[in-house]
Amino acid sequence: MEVDEIYDKRTAQALKAAGLNTVESIVLLRRYELPFQTKKADAVMSAAVSAIISRRVEEIEVANDEVVVRCVDASLIDEPLLAALKRALLCEYMNVGLDGDRVVITKRVHGVPSWIKPDEDWERVKRAAARWRSVLMAQKAEELRKKTGVAVSPEEVKKLAEDLGFDGFCKEFFADIKGNEAMKAALACSVFSTPDEPVNTLVVGPPGTAKTLALEIISQLEDVVTVGANVTRAGLVVNYASGELGVLAEADGKLVVVDEFDKAPPKDLQYTYELISSGRCDVHTGRIHERIRSKFILVALANPHGGVFSENPLSDIPLDPPLVSRFSLVVRSSELEGQDLVDLVHDKLLHGDSIRGRSELTAWVALARQQRPAVSDNGRLREFSRWLAEEIIGKYQDTPLRRDTRMPVHARRIMLALARAEFRDVVDEEIVERTQKILEKTTEEWKK
To answer: Most distant CA pair in the chain: distance in Å?
Structure first.
């Protein structure tokens, strides 16, 4: 982190003149080694400590016998971070251990200087950790407010996630969509995925099955690009008429919702194969010769062949099977009937076409995407592996639905999205079970 990022111009120039070009180099020094008088040196050091902790630390947990500092990434735990933590948490004479992306601090009883009182010092460490925890929470709340317009704390968001869970999110976030439960679950998985581990979803259904409504709801989130039919006809990766790069090529780090995905030019769709799979592709046309790098989450909406489903819905999927296999979830959206239709009519009579605001849920998504769960090798995972191989890959590999050997990666990303939605650190047996149910529901829809 460059000193220009956090200090005023005059202070930054003085630091650079002393050979201190980065914030990390400052926290490794003693206060008297800085090129300032005592008061100014204290302020410079405090700013450096705050900047490093704010950017590298995800959360601080305070217990009676330990303080746990969870970092954004294990690679960020280095000498400057540990030096900053020692200054901020007053833990120079405590035990400091590393555990993955965590720094664990405990009271040291033996080997401390004679003038140190371990119990009193440990209480000071816990008080300092609690103060910094409050600072981090306030900073994250402000970040959420800027992104979502909602001034809620991370704790409030996590409490909402605990109360509602993933199923509750689907119900509340997609409250304007009646029926189509499998579609809502699939779209929620996409919403809670990340561009590095995307759950790409293809929704196929005739007009009037809430596909466009889903697009409008998802567009309320941060970093979402919506693409209409005119854009798809012009090209998603490259526009052959203008020679310009398309939306997907420019959508790095975003969630992209594409309406009438099946209307994209066939040549252009060929480029999407690898771009969807790996986030890169080479484009060579008369006007463009570029290597594209773009990682995104894709929600694609399409109409079935002929506009409606036939007696064999699988045959109505409008994309080539190799392209279909790039999607983690392929969902059939259906026209409403029975009570779902009655509920929709009543809702439209009452509210018209307006879409209900979802600001707290938007904050939930923004915070959850920062979660980094891991997959544990539990007993249920082995059973799921067999089921995935036999019931999904085995039965649909040679069909228009094309569930092939890409499915393990797709399934893993679904599991991570579910864990992320509920702020879980580990994909446990319950998450594996729910992943299987989502895959069962989305494939069952194609048998109707």
So the answer is: 84
> Averaged over 275-285, what is the pLDDT?
81
Question: Per-residue pLDDT for 232 more than 90?
Answer: no
- The Cα–Cα gap between 258 and 246 comes to 12
Q: What is the DSSP string of 170-216?
A: HHHHTTTS-S-HHHHHHHHHHHTSBTTB---EEEE--TTSSHHHHHH
Q: For the chain, give the mean pLDDT.
A: 87
List pLDDT tens digits, range 124-133.
999 999 989 8
Please say whether the beta carbons of 319 and 275 come within 8 A. no
Two tokens, residue 55: 């950017």
Residue 312 Cα distances to 308, 315, 317, angstroms: 11, 6, 10
| HEC string for 353-386 | CCCCCCHHHHHHHHHHCCCCCEECCCHHHHHHHH
Query: Which residues, listed in sequence order, are joined to residue 302 by a DSSP beta bridge?
Result: 204
**Amino acid letter, residue 80:** P
Which pLDDT value is given to residue 138?
Answer: 80
Rg (CA), the chain: 26
Tokens 């062949």 -> residue: 305
pLDDT for the residue numbered 336: 61
If one counts every other C-beta atom within 10 angstroms of the C-beta of residue 46, the result is 13
SS3 133: helix
Distance of CA 187 to the CA centre of its chain: 13
Query: Please, what is the angle between helix 38-56 and helix 79-89, to 10°?
Result: 110
Q: Are 205 and 333 in contact (CB under 8 A)?
A: yes
How does DSSP classify residue 304?
P
Number of H helices, E strands in the chain: 17, 13
Instruction: Return the H-helix or E-strand segment holding 257.
Output: strand 255-258
Match 């300092």 to its residue by tokens: 128
Cβ–Cβ under 8 Å, residues 11 and 39: no
SS3 60: strand
Tokens of 130: 């609690």
Nearest to 267 by CA among 292, 294, 233: 233
CA–CA dist 380, 430 (Å, integer): 8
**Backbone torsions φ then ψ of 258, nearest 5 degrees:** -110, 120
**pTM for this predicted structure:** 0.73
- Determine the residue type at 3: V
